[in-house]
Amino acid sequence: MIMETRSVSFIEDTIRLLSGLDQDECRYLYDEKNQLPSIDRLREAVQLLRSIIFPGYFGDPVSGSSTLPHFLGVRLEKLYTLLVEQTRNVQHFEPVAQRIGHPVQDAGETVRRFIETLPGLRRTLCTDVKAIYNGDPAAKSHGEIVFCYPSIRAMINHRAAHTLLQLGVPLIPRIISEMAHSETGIDIHPGASIGDYFCIDHGTGVVIGETCIIGNHVRIYQGVTLGAKKFELDKDGKLSKNLPRHPIIEDNVVIYSNANILGRITIGKNSVIGGSVWITRSVPAHSRILQRKAVESSFTNGLGI
Fold it and tell me: Which end is more exposed in the chain, N or C (fewer Cβ atoms within 10 Å of the end residue's Cβ)?
């Protein structure tokens, strides 16, 4: 009986302490006008989006081309409803809206504009599939790439999240990006701008920062980091937000595994960046950057580069 009394008292004390954290910035109380977005509902929206972009590869099978319009229509309507609901929730989540700095917009209009981008988004994603197929001898078909390659899943999420961010939707783009990160090990901030024919080979451990700008026909391998070198502070000593601090990668660049490219520098077009290098200065076009020891060893052994 003594132990039972102590247990109840212990639980009551813990409840009282947890309930009294009124000044905690992580505290959130539900009310009808100020709801949080739902991770489960957004995960459902991502699955719908994937089935719309690549019907038959994701979600239910499509029985034939004649049924495709109906298949797409049902899923587009459901996607619209889900995204409007979640956009309204996040727009009323005031601390996030204030941090992002976007004015509250009509959720229905915002999602309508997003839906209208989907044909173009699909065309761009098809260029990503082609880039992988053209550059990977292990890929036997475009269908194999859509089914099996984690980079395609990550890029569906990223290109959708980037579009939503451009439309002024707060928080949801980051949630969608982190879903892909958890699923694939590929971490792309929704703010990063990525051109056509983008290929991530293997992909595990890839990190692409918020202010990265990546051109067309760029190929990167596992473990590559396109990150920041340092963080600027404001006059109050706090981190300055949204400053350009990540690399610019121009067209036709290849970056091999575990390379670290840091800071607001430019890797010029048609360059090749070798594996496990550390770059903090801009590289001119048509460069070939390799580890010095590996290069010297190769020449010593008469192998050349």
Answer: N
